[in-house]
Amino acid sequence: MTNPKTGYHRSLLETYFSDEYKIELGDEATADSSFALKPRDNPSVAAATIAPMYRTRFKYIVQFGRGTVSFRDAYKSNFNRVNGATPGQQRRIAERYSDFEERMRKVQAQMIFDAERK
Known about the structure:
The protein is of the alpha+beta class. The protein has helices at residues 5-17, 45-50, 79-82, 87-117, and strands spanning 21-25, 33-39, 60-64, 69-73.
């Protein structure tokens, strides 16, 4: 059974992320609603495996709770991120994470604004 707020949460994500990310419904058992976001320009597994110093895959798990939203990097413990990431990879990972984090702050601010309007 889908949570009624799932539509609202999805619309928030679409507003702030759909330009660069594919949004998929995640595991509903873990939060009020959960989504997986992957960049539209994510390289294939093969491309990222063959040339990890040039191509990095990303996937974020976003979870909505009672008036809150949180996220995590689904590939944070990936071998290349933990051991031996090149300076270029580290920079791409940090930049992408920073951009994602900023967008998530906007989602949280919008949720607060919408709650106060009710």
